[in-house]
Amino acid sequence: MLDIKQIRENPQAVQERLNRRGGNYDLQPLFSIDAQQRELETTRSKLQARSNEIGKLVGQKMKAGAKPDDPEIQALKEEGNQLKSQLGELEPKEKELKSQIDELLLSIPNLPSDSTPAGKDENDNVEVRRWGDEYIPQNAGILPHWEIGEKLGILNFERSAKVAQSRFVTLIGAGAALERALISFMLDRQIQAGYIEVLPPILINTASLTGTGQLPKFAEESFKCAQDDLWLAPTAEVPVTNLYRDEILPAEQLPIYHCAYTPCFRREAGSYGKDTRGLIRLHQFNKVELVKFVHPSTSEAEHQTLVRDAEAILEALKLPYRTIELCAGDLGFSSQKTYDLEVWLPSAGKYREISSCSNFGDFQARRANIRFKEAGKKGTQFAHTLNGSGLAIGRTMSAILENYQQPDGTVRIPEALQPTMGREVL
Questions:
Q1: What's the rounded Cα separation, in Å, for the pair 92 and 355?
Q2: 308 included as an active-site residue
Q3: Catalytic position from the list 356, 358, 389, 398
Q4: Would residue 208 show up in a list of annotated catalytic residues for this protein?
Q5: Is 281 known to be catalytic?
Q6: Is 366 in the active site?
């Protein structure tokens, strides 16, 4: 959520930064309602002050000997009753206007950072670096990961559709073992990097999704329980970030690093016809997420470190990838700056996203009311939150099944996973 004070004081600057996203963000309705609310607030404050003054005057005059039925006392009480009536009418109106302001603020995306590249869409994203060209397989005829997975008997989509519907998968035998090995490997590496592992709830409430920015705008993307205020988590970012909702943290506790494995659930609304086969765009998938809560002064440096922590997993698995900086027009709703990691998929002959690492500034913390207090200083500040996939498990498996595929139809297991798997080849 943006700071209403920032919008009031710098409306043109805020509008210009929103325009960098390429959408049509009209702040005029917000200005209009905010002006009405502030006018009501001023009027209410004056009426309240006069009401308090009358109360004191009545008390003083009664102490001085005035009787309750004195004309002056009666006049003051009558004025006080009128003021109370007016205040009773103004307060719900002001409350309604504040509610409208909050609703409008919740629908406005984060402002791109000054360093975020200009651009309209993914075609304007900037490649920052590549790694692992020497590991790109040169053998021809590499099968898509779903084909080699089905041939090896480790992926089954047909029976999953019978159990659930399309875009679900069942992992069998070595497939299930590989998934489990990847989860353990990623968690172990991130714990070594300084993250504290958590295993959060995967059923989460509306306040949690609102805090991180999935609601109200992206309700159609999530699965909701019919009889409860509970949703299936679209990513561990949501429950982990909201562990600290409505809290004031001691500044010395920052930074806080968490890593978390969870199943993730997404409707993939609007993606019909895209990646309908394989592990790239499922309704249910596993992911290891990295989440940071940091002091605003270290936010940018912490973002770069988070990206490196995600890249380190791909390098340990010797999977070729590139790092992309998203332009303003391709940013997610809550992000002010994002780097995507894209892994090489030989069967498609292109890089595909496997991790998105974002800095949200104080956008999520303001929505979720996550603050910190520095010793010896008055007041509190909003923390900065960051998160990134470290990594999406299914997409990592798809990259392994293709990049490590052999001409004889087997798939080598990355050396880093062989001790856990207890084998070298699928």
A1: 46
A2: no
A3: 356
A4: no
A5: yes
A6: no
